[in-house]
């Protein structure tokens, strides 16, 4: 997905990029219990490869692993999970990721647990393959351009380079590119990133208000 951010500072565009990389939660393999591995791939390398496989599971349906109290203990039968997540279709995003090659007589016997996490804790939780933006050249007008002159000026550039607001303000977009790993669509990831940024702003405002009251 590609879109333009218009009328914002570069710091805001970079904030979206960093949030997409490190603060939008996803599901990833966290623990790997290897009961038998007779392949040439070491257990540690195998576990690392498994952890980096994108898992198609909507993280919004799960909760973060946190401090556990006795009130949090809940019995959930394994057999019922297929019904609970029937619409989620939890599985690897891609079927063709190579983990290990086996020779005759070799085998892998593994149990894996997925948990919800953030990219800032480990790259395996990052939901994007890349998230970037470009800084366009800065154009400085020596005088106010209005009316027909403003329209002619706009036509001098490629479409989307500049736009007009209130007939005299020139706005410059930040072209943004978001490439998802396939866990969630890029438009959903951008929406979730916006929610994270809004929560950060709200937290900052709350802290400022508390300081002012004191």
Automatic annotation (TrEMBL):
<dbReference type="InterPro" id="IPR001514">
    <property type="entry name" value="DNA-dir_RNA_pol_30-40kDasu_CS"/>
</dbReference>
<dbReference type="InterPro" id="IPR036603">
    <property type="entry name" value="RBP11-like"/>
</dbReference>
<feature type="domain" description="DNA-directed RNA polymerase RpoA/D/Rpb3-type">
    <location>
        <begin position="1"/>
        <end position="207"/>
    </location>
</feature>
<keyword id="KW-0539">Nucleus</keyword>
<dbReference type="InterPro" id="IPR011263">
    <property type="entry name" value="DNA-dir_RNA_pol_RpoA/D/Rpb3"/>
</dbReference>
<dbReference type="InterPro" id="IPR033901">
    <property type="entry name" value="RNAPI/III_AC40"/>
</dbReference>
<dbReference type="Pfam" id="PF01000">
    <property type="entry name" value="RNA_pol_A_bac"/>
</dbReference>
<dbReference type="InterPro" id="IPR050518">
    <property type="entry name" value="Rpo3/RPB3_RNA_Pol_subunit"/>
</dbReference>
<dbReference type="InterPro" id="IPR036643">
    <property type="entry name" value="RNApol_insert_sf"/>
</dbReference>
<dbReference type="Pfam" id="PF01193">
    <property type="entry name" value="RNA_pol_L"/>
</dbReference>
<protein>
    <recommendedName>
        <fullName>DNA-directed RNA polymerases I and III subunit RPAC1</fullName>
    </recommendedName>
</protein>
<keyword id="KW-0240">DNA-directed RNA polymerase</keyword>
<keyword id="KW-0804">Transcription</keyword>
<dbReference type="InterPro" id="IPR011262">
    <property type="entry name" value="DNA-dir_RNA_pol_insert"/>
</dbReference>
């Amino acid at each position: 997905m590609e879109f333009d951010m218009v009328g914002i500072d570069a710091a805001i565009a970079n904030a979206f990029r960093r949030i997409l990389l490190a603060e939008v939660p996803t599901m990833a393999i966290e623990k790997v219990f290897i009961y038998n591995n007779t392949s040439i791939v070491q257990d540690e390398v195998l576990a690392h490869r498994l952890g980096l496989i994108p898992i198609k599971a909507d993280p919004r349906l799960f909760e973060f692993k946190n401090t556990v109290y006795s009130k949090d203990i809940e019995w959930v039968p394994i057999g019922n999970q297929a019904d609970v997540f029937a619409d989620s279709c939890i599985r690897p995003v891609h079927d063709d990721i190579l983990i290990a090659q086996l020779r005759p007589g070799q085998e892998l016997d593994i149990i894996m647990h997925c948990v919800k996490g953030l990219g800032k804790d480990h790259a395996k939780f990052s939901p994007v393959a890349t998230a970037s933006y470009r800084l366009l050249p800065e154009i400085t007008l020596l005088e106010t351009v209005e009316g027909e002159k403003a329209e002619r000026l706009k036509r001098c550039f490629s479409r989307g380079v500049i736009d007009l607001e209130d007939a005299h303000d020139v706005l410059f977009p930040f072209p943004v590119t978001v490439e998802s790993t396939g866990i969630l669509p890029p438009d959903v990831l951008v929406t979730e990133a916006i929610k994270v940024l809004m929560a950060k702003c709200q937290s900052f405002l709350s802290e400022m208000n508390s300081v002012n009251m004191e």
